[in-house]
Design brief:
Blueprint: E1 9-11, E2 20-22, H1 26-94, H2 96-183
Antiparallel strand pairs: 1-2
Helix pairs in contact: 1-2
Length: about 180
């Protein structure tokens, strides 16, 4: 089995020149390159991701607080409606002989309107929470993906530049070697 350093540097190929060469075999060096890229992405992306998640958490908590305030307002409205209902019930007892059915109708309408208001407020709260959660997840995904792609492209560009540089040096060494053979 080859030594790990043999995967990157091979010494003795041009032993008379005393030089070494980098191994450009992608299959031999690719897992190590990928682990380095992933390590860099995790190291630098962790703080950014934590900051983004903290900001989203604060926004979601703010939305929850607003929803709780709306809920408290709805509960207060419900209490007011209950007080009004009690008042209507007292009036119903007084006017029972004159129009029992109309009072019952008003009572039902009042309860239905209050229930509908509470249901709409609860639905609005749930939709707002779901929307904010989805939006937060999508924003974090997009930002993490953009940062990962930018870092990966930067790494690839630097690798490609080094590889092109290495190929040029290798070609020039080959030309010099053939020139030396001709002159000998």
């Amino acid at each position: 089995m080859k030594n790990i350093t043999d995967s990157f540097v091979s010494v003795g190929h041009w032993s008379s020149a005393g030089s070494f060469e980098f191994n450009t075999d992608i299959l031999a060096t690719n897992p190590i390159n990928l682990s380095v890229v992933l390590g860099v992405l995790i190291f630098f992306g962790k703080g950014v991701l934590n900051d983004l998640l903290d900001k989203r958490k604060q926004r979601i908590l703010s939305t929850i607080r607003n929803s709780e305030e709306l809920r408290r307002g709805a509960i207060e409205q419900l209490e007011i409606a209950r007080v009004r209902l009690r008042k209507v019930e007292i009036e119903a007892d007084e006017y029972r002989t004159n129009g029992y059915s109309e009072i019952e109708r008003e009572k039902g309408n009042l309860i239905n309107a209050t229930c509908n208001s509470l249901e709409r407020l609860e639905n609005y709260k749930n939709e707002t929470l779901f929307f904010e959660k989805q939006r937060a997840i999508n924003q974090v995904r997009q930002q993490v993906l953009q940062q990962a792609l930018q870092r990966a492209l930067g790494t690839l560009n630097s690798c490609l530049n080094s590889e092109l540089h290495f190929r040029t040096i290798s070609a020039n060494i080959g030309i010099l070697g053939s020139v030396e053979e001709i002159t000998d």
